[in-house]
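User: Here's a chain of 179 residues. Predict its fold as tokens.
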Amino acid sequence: MRRWPALLPVVVFFALAGMFYWRIVMMEQGDMPNNIPSPMISKAAPEFDLPPLLLDKPGVKLGDLKGKVTLVNFFASWCVPCRVEHPLLSQLGDRVNLVGVAYKDRPEDSRSWLGKLGDPYKALGMDRDGRVGIDFGVYGVPESYLIDKNGVIRFKQTGPFTPEDISKKLMPMLAELQK
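Assistant: Prediction complete.
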């Protein structure tokens, strides 16, 4: 009986190693964490009206998005994957109405972050308390939602976009929705 406490760390180690191995095998089979399904797909985007982050750009509200295909990107200055994704968003240019939502971030931090990395957004809103993110079903940042001309969510990207995500997922969806 005295040996059991001494074996406990070994048992815990092998249990954790087994879980990590199982997760790696699942990822190799295509079960990626950024493939989290969204119950919001094919549903109307939630109503929202966010105050502007910058004085020279409007805030973001659902009514302003109607009539154009829009990519709503939730980001934060404290988010390392957001920094990785940012140059890819900057390359989208005029191909999509790109709007940003500073999620649970201090306005001065978001402004400084955009000042350093550039501002690819046509409109920027502040979601300081995260309420709009909750309504969208945001798991964490970065997260993006493609909304069609009628205000219906058609695609969700959990985690940062990669060049492959943009070319194989986002661009074909954009082409279809902009017809």
